[in-house]
Amino acid sequence: MSVRGLRKTYRTFSLRQVVAVDHLDLTVPAGGVHAFLGPNGSGKTTTIRMLLGLVRPDAGTVHLFGTPVPSRLPEVVGRVGAIVENPKFVPGFSGRRNLRLLATAVGVPDTRVEAVLERVGLRDRGHDQFQRYSLGMKQRLAIAATLLKDPDLLIFDEPTNGLDPAGIRDVRATMRGLADEGRTVLVSSHILAEVEHVADTVSVVARGRLVAQGTVADLLGGGGAADVRVGVADHDHAEALLSACGWQVRRVGTALLVSGSPGGAQVNEVLARGGLYAHEVAAVRRDLEAAFLELTGPGPAPGSAATTGAPVGGAR
Fold it and tell me: How many domains does the chain divide into?
């Protein structure tokens, strides 16, 4: 799936123009889980609606399986399953009956209903009324509905919103399992831990623009030097020695955090040459939340002349 130069604007009741998606470029590799990450209001849902032909873009191109959409969407729509916002089912019908109605509508046999209920772990609860399902079960039933046509691409917009930890775990495991079967799963989310636990690759958007793209390790700076936590008795002397090397040093509790160094061994060597001996030297993996906030923090407004963020690390 690829998006190039995608743009969408809306007008408010006061006739003010609002840019929801601003010349967005996005590439989703085939197979695996690709997280579409950004704060609320960053243009994720609008982008997904344009991918599915529910909203027409002002400019740009979208290709699914190499086919331009929405102009030729009927050719590929059968290979796509999607959950956008809240799924709709008949509350008084059982989960199984809801799926049978959908199966009839899309022309697949009842046997497929049993297969997808089994796939999402709801076969034993298929006879229960939908209105008696927990939020997690409702979301798993929605995923089952997307699987009726056995799609190659699954698109989930904020699939764990409102779920308790058990529901999040179940949905996350289902998405990971679908990707492991060879499908492509595009999941939109602002929940950072979800990205780290389930995604293979990630695209980060802010204010309607792409600001980073690559693997989770790329986003965390896995391809470069990590911060180094240093425990030493004389903070002032250590800070002076390490700063003289051009590294950034700040105090965190009873330790020093060194950024920009080649690694712990080099930090320890500098301290030893200066007559200091650390009782702790440890690499510190960059926090995903810190990376996310750094990428999506305040910046140029959409439509400005500033550069719109580029892939990180080994981005595709």
Answer: 2
Task: Give the contacts of 38 (CB within 8 A, at least 6 positions apart).
Answer: 44, 190, 204, 205, 206, 296
Written as six digits, the tokens of 311 are 């892939």
**Residue 141 belongs to a domain with what CATH number?**
3.40.50.300
CA-nearest of 101, 99, 82 to 137 is 99
Mean predicted lDDT score pLDDT of the chain = 85
Residues in the chain: 316
Retrieve residue 274's tokens.
């200066």
Same structural domain, 109 and 250: no
If asked whether residues 100 and 44 sit together in one domain, one would say: yes
Tell me whether residue 129 is in a domain.
yes
State the pLDDT at residue 86: 75
Residue 114 burial (C-beta neighbours within 10 Å; 0-12, 13-18, 19+) = middle
Residue 315 falls inside a structural domain:
no
Residue 17 binned pLDDT confidence (cut-offs 50, 70, 90): confident
SS3 readout for 67-131: EEECCCHHHHHHHEEEECCCCCCCCCCEHHHHHHHHHHHHCCCHHHHHHHHHHCCCHHHCCCEHH
Clarify whether residues 122 and 13 are in a common domain: yes
Give how far Cα 294 sits from Cα of 34, 288, 290, 298, Å. 20, 10, 6, 9
- Name the residue range of residue 266's domain: 227-285
45 token code pair? 């849902």
- Tally of helices (H runs) and strands (E runs) in the chain: 11, 14
- Report pLDDT digits (tens) over 32-56: 999 998 888 889 999 999 999 999 9
Same domain, 99 and 195: yes
User: Smallest Cα–Cα separation from 171: which of 135, 145, 206, 224?
Assistant: 135
Q: How many CA atoms lie within 13 A of 280 on its CB side?
A: 16
| Burial letters 166-187, b for 16+ CB under 10 A, else e | ebbebbbebbbebbeeebbbbb
